[in-house]
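Case study 2.
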Amino acid sequence: MKSVLIAGLAVASLMFGGVAHASEAKATEAGCIKCHAVDKKKMGPAFKDIAAKNKGNKDYVAAAVKKLQSGSGHPKSAASEADLKLVMDWVMTL
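Prediction:
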């Protein structure tokens, strides 16, 4: 039983690690990395700072995606809505 639990945890960590990496790759593809970094301010705020500021706001991801799509208060992104949601969901895990 113990080995099954350990194997399950190992698989879960690989799955979540892959999702995090894929989301960071999407942020790069979408051009987010030009102005933002994970843990330091560049032209825009650090992703970790964005996550901390909006922690607990259940509507933030949807509002951010809308803002990124419309170019209202942030440069308009050409990325798809699904990719932007993936990126913003990832940002909120930081």
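The chain has one domain: 22-91.
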